[in-house]
Amino acid sequence: MIGTELHFKDKNITIYNCYCPPGKDHALHAMNISDQCIVVGDFNCHSPSWGYENQDASGEEVDDWQINMSLLLLNSPEDPPTFHSRSWMTTSTPDLAFATELSKQGK
């Protein structure tokens, strides 16, 4: 995970980019979610919230974290997949984007 803070005249926006390898614990607790925050990355988890039929334990963890941090999921279940496996001939959506309400509205 990497994070940076952008400073503008009257506001600061924190941006995190995460990679969570399959089967590993998420480092969600390590992020300091501020009033103006965007979190993007490859979360390698499943939830109907972003288009999977079933939810796995990691997907439940990310769903709970999103709710607890008052983040908006910017992905939609109707969005096209973000990963195409040529080896397995499958598609998936490991890449997710979250934002605080103010950063989504651009205020």
UniProtKB/TrEMBL annotation:
Domain Endonuclease/exonuclease/phosphatase positions: 13-101
A Pfam entry, by short name: Exo_endo_phos_2
UniProt-recorded Gene Ontology molecular function terms: catalytic activity
InterPro entries from the UniProt entry: Endo/exonu/phosph_ase_sf, Endo/exonuclease/phosphatase, RdDP_mobile_element
Protein name: Endonuclease/exonuclease/phosphatase domain-containing protein
Species whose genome carries this gene: Elysia marginata
Highest classification ranks of the organism: Eukaryota, Metazoa, Spiralia, Lophotrochozoa, Mollusca
